[in-house]
Amino acid sequence: MTTNKIIFHPDNNGINISQGTDILEAAITAGVYINSPCGGKGVCGKCKVRIKHVHEGAPLPVETKTTGLLTQDELDQGFVLACCTTILTSIEVDVPPSSRLTKEQILTQETKIEHLERVVSRIETIEGEEKKVTGHTPLVRKLFLDISPPTMDDHTSDLERVYREINKLEELGDIFTSLSNIRLIPGMLRDSNWQVTALIGRDNKLLSLEPGDTSLRNFGLAIDVGTTTVVVQLVDLNTGKVIDTEASYNRQAHHGADVITRIIFSHKKQGMDKLHQLIIDTINDLIQALIQEHNLRQDEITSIICAGNTTMLHLLLQIDPSHIRIDPYIPAVNFMPLITAAEIGIKINPHGLVACLPHVASYVGADITAGVLASGIYQADEISMLIDIGTNGEIVIGNKDWLVCCASSAGPAFEGGGIKAGIRAMEGAIQRVEIDPLNYTVRYNTIGQVKPIGICGSGLIDTLTELLKTKIIDQSGNINANIPTKRILETEDGLGFVLVWEEDAGGSEDIIITQSDISNLIFSKGAIYTACVILAKKIGFEVNDIERIYIAGGFGNYLNIEKSIMIGLLPDIDRDRYRFIGNSSLSGASCCLLSDEAMKEAEEIARRMTYIEMSADNSYMNEYTGALFLPHTDMGRFPSMCR
Amino acid sequence: MTTNKIIFHPDNNGINISQGTDILEAAITAGVYINSPCGGKGVCGKCKVRIKHVHEGAPLPVETKTTGLLTQDELDQGFVLACCTTILTSIEVDVPPSSRLTKEQILTQETKIEHLERVVSRIETIEGEEKKVTGHTPLVRKLFLDISPPTMDDHTSDLERVYREINKLEELGDIFTSLSNIRLIPGMLRDSNWQVTALIGRDNKLLSLEPGDTSLRNFGLAIDVGTTTVVVQLVDLNTGKVIDTEASYNRQAHHGADVITRIIFSHKKQGMDKLHQLIIDTINDLIQALIQEHNLRQDEITSIICAGNTTMLHLLLQIDPSHIRIDPYIPAVNFMPLITAAEIGIKINPHGLVACLPHVASYVGADITAGVLASGIYQADEISMLIDIGTNGEIVIGNKDWLVCCASSAGPAFEGGGIKAGIRAMEGAIQRVEIDPLNYTVRYNTIGQVKPIGICGSGLIDTLTELLKTKIIDQSGNINANIPTKRILETEDGLGFVLVWEEDAGGSEDIIITQSDISNLIFSKGAIYTACVILAKKIGFEVNDIERIYIAGGFGNYLNIEKSIMIGLLPDIDRDRYRFIGNSSLSGASCCLLSDEAMKEAEEIARRMTYIEMSADNSYMNEYTGALFLPHTDMGRFPSMCR
User: Fold this and answer.
1) Do the two domains A139-211 and A380-411+523-641 of this chain adopt the same fold?
2) Does residue A618 sit at the B interface (CB-CB below 8 Å)?
3) Is the pTM above the cut of 0.90?
C-alpha cells in the first residue's frame, strides 16, 4: 500500500500514513490535536486546516468533500475540513489556532484550574476533621515491616508472618493476597533480610511486598475524567498534601465532543478499543508529566480515584456504554469494581489500585456524586441545590435526609457547541462583552488578552445579557432588524450581530452571534432552569425557596450570577445564597483518595440519590415553554428583574 | 539432534526421544509409570526394566551404569535400571509388574478406597446436622435469576440489577465481581432475555453468569493430593451426594517417593514447573475420567477443595516449598488463597474456585487438619489421639479445649520404602504372613491372590510379629542364626529370612526380609511410638491414658491393632478404644466442599493446633532408644504383652 508523509505545522510533526487516510485520522495517529466536536462527521466545521503551498486556482493534492462549511475565501486559501479530506500525496498542513490546542492553551487550562487549590485546602480540612474519627486511610497504605526471622520456636509460615507483622502495626484483622504474590514472598523475605514494605489496599488486600523500606514514598492520583478535559492531581498519601495538578484535553474528543457521539463511535469496528486506549493514553501522558516534574518512580504511585460521567468511566474501564443512550437508558454498572492499574494499562505501580466513585444513573455520574460529597449538601439541615453546568447540566436537591437528582438535556451551547463562533475557554476566547447602548460598539476581552478567535461560555452569557439590555434582541430572543447599526446583518443562519469585525479578529472572518445561536442558548438555559424548577416541585418546593445553590463545573467559576439570573439561566434568589465549588468532581475524588470514610459517604450518597427522569414528567413541556423567554414568561419568578 | 524410538511393553506405548535421554525420563514423557521412589538417583533399585531382544553376552544398545543393584542373572537377561540407562538407538523395553502400575493395580487401589463410602455417609450425617444450623453452603452455589428488564421507572444498572435479584433469592448482602465479568454482563443479559444463572462463591464473589437456567447441574470435587496417591471424589453440590471416586498414583512419583526428594527435584532447572504440571496432569486425567463416566460438561464442575500435606499443596499451587526442608522448616503459607481453577490450569469451569484446607506446619499439613475435622476430636470432651501413619506419621492429641500435634520422622518403611522387598499395597503385595513355630514354613496371602512380588505395610507388620513370636528375632530385632532353617541365610545386607522362595515368587528372586529391613522397621515404629509418648507427656499425660485413638491414612485400615501393639508401634490400650477413620483427608475435604461451617471449623482447627517440634525435645533420644525394642525396653508400658 502506498504511504504518504504528512507534516503538521506549526509543530512540524510528521507521520507516514497510507494513501486515502483522512487528515483527522492522521492527526490522531500523529498525536496532533485538531478540534472535532462532531466526531468527524463533517457537520460542525470546527476542524479547519490549511493545505500548505497551495496557489489560488491550483488543484488540491487531496480529495475533499464540499461541505458548505467553508467560505470561498477559505477555499481559495487552501482550507479544508480535516475529517472530510483524504490525502493523495505527501503534504504539509497548517493547523490554525482555532482548530488546535497549543501548549499555551494547556497552560491557560491550568490557570483555569488553579482555583482547585481552594478546594484542596478544603479537602485537608475535611481530612483534618476526619483524622480524629477515622484516621488516615488512603486507598493504598504502605507499612514498613521489620520481621523477626523464623526459629524452631516461632515457625509461623512466611505469609502468616507477614500478616502478623502488619497486624502488630495496624489491627487490620483478616488480610488476603493473590497467589502470584504468595509465590514471590519466600524469596523476597530472605533476599531482603526480612525487611519489606507492604502495600495494602483498603479492602485489606496485600497488593505487593517491596524489598526494604519504601514507606516514605507513597503517592496517589485523583482524576477527573471529563468528556472534554482530563485533570490529574498528584497527592502525597503520607501527608495528604496536593503536590501538583496537570490537565489536558481528553484525546477521545477527536471522536466527538459529547458522550452520545462517542457511544456511537464505540460501536464502530474497534471503536470501543480505540476510545478506551485514547483515554488511557491521555491519563498516562499526564501521569508521565507529573512523574518527570517531581522526580517520582512509577512504582511510587500506588492508587487512583476517578470521577467522571457515567459514559467516561465506562469507556475508561472498557465496559460497553451502549445502553446509556438507548431507552430506558441503563448503565452497565453504577458501582465500578476496584481494579488494579495493570488491568486497564494505567502506568503507575501495576499492583496499585484504581477505584471509581459511583454513578447514580446514565446521566448522573460519579462527577455528581463527587460534587454532592464536596458540597456537603448531604450532611446539611438546610435544603440545598447543586447545579453542574456542562454539556448536560445535572441538578441535585437535598439535605441530610434525602437527595433527588436529574439531568437536563441542555446541550453543549454554553461550552461553545452548536454556536457558530463558540469555542472552549481557551486563549483567544471572548469572555467578557459590553455593548454601548447608544452606538452599539462592542468592548470585550479575551483569555490571554490576544486577538479574539471565538466566544466561550461566559462570553456567550455576557453577549446575551448585553443584547437584551440594549434591546437588540427582545425577550423572545429575536434580533430587531430595525436597530440602526451595520453590526446587524443577514447571515445564512438568519440575522446576526457582529461582535468583532474580521480586521480585529484572530481568524479570517467576522465573529458573529446569529439568530440561530441565540435560539440555541435560550434552549440550553431554558432546559437547565426548567430542570431546577421541576425537580424542586417534585419534592414540593418552589425553586426560589432553596436555601443554598452550589455551582459546580469548570465553567461555573466564570459564571456571572447576576447576568445568569437576568437571562433566566439561574433562579432569582439572593445572590449570597450562591456558592461556587469549582471542579468538585476532582475535589471529591481527591477526598476519597485520602479517606475511606469519604469513599463510604460517596457510596452512601449514590445509593441515597433518587434519580428523576425529566422527560417522563407531564408538566415538563409547559414549564419548558415558559422558560424559552428572557428571563421567563412568568416575571413573578424573577422579582429582582422587575425593579 | 538424533532421535530414537523407544517402545514400552506390555502397553506397546512408543515415543521418539533425543539420543542420550534416560529411560525413566522417556517413560515420564510417554506417560508410562515406572516406580522410582528415590527420584532417579540410582540408589533404590526399584526402576528395573528389561531391554528386549537382548541375547546373553551381546552388547546392550544402551549405556548403563553398574549400580550393584542388579543380580548377575538379571544383567544377563537384559535388566537395567531405567534411571541409570541412556538410549543409544531405537529399542523396546519391558516394564515388569514390580516396576509398573497396571490398570488392575489402579483398580486394587480403588478397592482399597471403597471404605470411603462409609466416611461419605458420615459426611452426609454431618451435613444433615449442619443443615439445621447453616443451610446448604457449597463452595460455589448456582442461582437461576429471572430478572425483570429495566424500565424508565426501574433504571437500576445491569450489574446492580443482577445483585438485587441474587439478594431477593438469598440475602447475601454485598456481592462483588471482576471487571472482565462486568464487561460481559450487558450483552449476556439481553441475549438471554434476562434469564441467567449466577455462580457465586462463598466469599460472595459473582464468579460468572451463564445464559439460561443451568442451576440443576452443579458439581464439586474433593481431592486428596497424596504424595503417592491422588484421590478425586465427585459430589453433586445440589444434593450433597457423592457420585463417584477415582484414584491414581501421583505422577510426581517419577521424581521421588517422598516429599524431601521432590523438594530437592523442584530446585532443578524447571523442576518446580515439572512437578506442578505433573500433579495438575494427574488431577486433570482423573477429572476427565469422571466427566466421561458420568456425562458431565467440564463447566458443570464449579468447585474443588484440596487436602494434602504441606509440600504437595505448595507444589499444586506452584509455590516454592524449599524452606519446608531447611531448618527451621517454614512453609511459605499455611492458609492457601482461594483461587480460580484457571489460575493453576485445572480443567473444570475456569471461573470455578479451588480452595485448600489449611496447614499447621511444614510437616503437619492440610491432610491432618482434615483428619481432625473428620474425627471430631476437636469437639469432644474426652482426650483423643489421631495417628496418621504414612511416610511421616503425624500425631494429634486434644479435645474441645486444646489441640497439640507433631510429626515423627518415621520414614517410609511401612509404605515399603527402604525395605529390600518392600512395595506399596498393590496387586502381588504380601499382606498377611504366618510363620509355623515348629518348622518355620511361611503361609501368606497377597493382594489379588496372585504370585507375590513384594511385601506391603500390613505384611511387614505381620512379618515382624511372626518373627518375634517364633523367636527368629529377639526383642532387639536381631536374627538368630542358630535357628535350624534354610530360610535364614546370609545376604549383602546381613542375615535375612526368606519369606518366599524364588520359584514361588512373581519376580526373579527370593523375597527376603533382611536384618537391615528389620532395623528400618524398628526405627520407624520406634519413631511413631516415641512421638505419641512425648506429645502426651508435653500436655502432662501418659500415652496409655488417652481415651480414644483414631487411626487415619489409607494404610491405617489394614493395620492389625493387636500385632501393631505387639511390636510396640501403637500404645497398649484397650483395643476397643481404637477407631479407623480411613482417608480422612478426603472425607474432611468433601465435608468442607459442602459446608462453609465445616471449612470455618477446619480453619479454626489449624489456628488452634499447637505444633511441637519433636527434635527439639530433650527427652526425645532417651525415649526413642527405649522404643527401639520389641515392643519396648519398659515392658510396664505394654501390660497386655506380659500376660
Assistant:
1) no
2) no
3) no
